[in-house]
Amino acid sequence: MMQETDRDIHISDGTMNKEEQSPNNEEMVEAFRNLLLLHGHLPDKHGDHNTLRRFLKMRDFDLEKSKEAFLNYMKWRVDYKVDLISQKFKFEEYGEVKKHYPHGFHKVDKTGRPIYIERLGMTDLNAFLKATTIERYVNYHIKEQEKTMSLRYPACSIASDKHVSSTTTILDVSGVGMSNFSKPARSLFMEIQKIDSNYYPETLHRLFVVNASSGFRMLWLALKTFLDARTLAKVQVLGPNYLGELLEAIEPSNLPTFLGGNCTCSDHGGCLFSDEGPWNDPGIKEKIEEPSTIEDAHSETMDKVSENAPANQKESLGEVMITMEKYAALKTAVKDSQKRIEMLEISLHETKKVLNGLAEIIEAIQPNQPITKCKPV
């Protein structure tokens, strides 16, 4: 059994929401938005407030580095045809894959965040690779990430009356050791890690690794090298006596029985097949699918929070709304300026043509010899 000292990293339960909504960070988001806008790099669909904040946090609020990361993200979406995968990709082997690689979203934690669970110790990699390919599984993973961003987080935000943009993850690694980290396993892990860290940054709230044996500790030393410091700070590696830690974050009714909770989801074929959560509530889904867009859904939840918030928090939220109004006005002004610049460029081009024509005429009538004055008679 692993003792208390076997935990590799402990989570520091800070006030992440307060940090994210601090005035300085909000000002940085506005500055980042303006930077992208003025350079013509702010897209209509993926340039929302929360996405920009995630990329800023990813690069420690360095504007230029955040801009580079965001532009790489947008290029990847085009090159990889992410929108097409999200809309059209069909993962017919879904049921068979889940049998050999048990994983899935299941309800929410005490803060309203979605819970994602993997039972890595029960993974049969050979059977998994017979059921699908790494490429197809990666496409399925991207489709699930897009669903989380566009449906699960907004639904959790509405259900909990507060903004939700990150996930609580549980990895059950019972029986997992170095022998499980084969070449195909490494390829899959590295590809998924690259996608999540580069293109869906700052979506992990905390990660519980449970049932970690001494064999897993050796593997963990290798896995840690692929994770950045911000991610590592959210990880807690636990032995078999993990339940107390999980119950501090998750209600027993929302925790599957195989992790020590009370839930079985027997009517769904098991918890990891259920995808149970607020995102399946018809009323919530209807709100999200309204023409008001996802960004407005976030604004609605922020308004609900503000009703019962203390005065200083209301003032902070009010400043955010003012910032958004300023952004809308700025966007309109920039568009008008761009139109005026285009008209000036056309006018300048025409002026250049006229001047070039005049230069040619002057050159043609200029005498070859200098004019001499006539002597007076």
Automatic annotation (TrEMBL):
Residues 1-25 are annotated as: Disordered. Signal peptide: none annotated. It is a peripheral membrane protein. One of its GO terms (biological process) is protein transport. The keyword Protein transport applies. One of its GO terms (cellular component) is plasma membrane. PROSITE patterns: CRAL_TRIO. Residues 93-267 form the CRAL-TRIO domain. Gene3D superfamilies: CRAL-TRIO lipid binding domain, N-terminal domain of phosphatidylinositol transfer protein sec14p. SUPFAM superfamilies: CRAL/TRIO domain (SSF52087), CRAL/TRIO N-terminal domain (SSF46938). Keywords: Cell membrane, Golgi apparatus, Membrane, Protein transport, Transport. It is found in: Cell membrane; Golgi apparatus membrane. Residues 1-21 have a biased composition (Basic and acidic residues). The keyword Membrane applies. Its main location: membrane. PANTHER family: CRAL-TRIO DOMAIN-CONTAINING PROTEIN YKL091C-RELATED, PHOSPHATIDYLINOSITOL_PHOSPHATIDYLCHOLINE TRANSFER PROTEIN SFH11. Belongs to the SFH family. This is Sec14p-like phosphatidylinositol transfer family protein. It comes from Arabidopsis thaliana (Mouse-ear cress).
